[in-house]
User: Fold this.
Amino acid sequence: MFSTRLFRPAAQLSSQVRRYASEAPKSGGNNGLLYGLGGVALAGAGYYAFAGGKDPVQQAKELTEPAAKNVPPSQGGPPDKVFIGGDQGFISLVLDKVDNINHNTKQFRFKFENPDAVSGLPVASAIITKDKGPQDEKPTIRPYTPTSDEDERGYMDLVVKKYPNGPMSEHLHAMEPGQRLDMKGPIPKYPWAANKHDHIALIAGGTGITPMYQLCRQIFKNPEDKTKVTLVFGNVTEEDILLKKEFEELENNFPQRFRAFYVLDKPPKGWKQGSGFITKDLLKTVIPGPNDENVKVFVCGPPGLCKAISGPKKSPADQGELSGYLQELGYSKDQVFKF
Assistant:
């Protein structure tokens, strides 16, 4: 379990966080946002509104990056990449197995035709899924950020929360092993490179945690990357905290470089961390300040969270202006990335 030291009184915690930010790595406002929004959050990569009468499949094609060469595996050579972008069409992948995570979230493992292939997704990026039911005029297209490692061969995992009247999440939750789902990618998000920033702050709600986990996984599996990471993660209940075990392992293995702060709308009795809100005062206390070091803040979650913390994106290609708590705390537009 996480130590209660993470939520000491603000004055004590502020001192501790500043000290933490300067430690050498070892090897190895009160207007808060409630998270009881139920089905408002959309899958980790964020929501894409395919509107204006434009064909959603064509919009999906425009979002993908230029194609890379699909190099066949050879002795000592790189593995095949399943998703290569560009003019590559949608790929039909077989659902291999489904694991229940909690009352409304499942992990879906899709297998590749070539068991030695990798997904081909760079960090940070996502894939888009497509389904057209018999009564649908147009296909439903939604983005998801895989939670499996990009170097895993033969399969890819998606963690998906079921939302009422969410056509793609309901379709996925009704799928059985052996059925197929169309996918396309990669959708490039943020071009990560080792040590690009001294410290990153990840502010997430609900399934907005998946791109954050993708970044963490990339950082901490690379022994050359010394980036510090602070996570602030808001949910409704403790059961809703996705990937909590994985983040606990990171904090245990990298105590000088990774810390997680959890905020629950409905905390259980005896809960020792944050409750109810992610506030400006909390962010001021636990994440590095805009002038402390080479810092980058990433935001992903329900529309209400993004509005309160950073302001919304205008479109997948336009970050929009910075507003909300981060603007009030003095961060610049260039210091914030909205998934």
About this structure: The first helix runs from residue 10 to 22. The two ends are 28 Å apart (CA to CA).
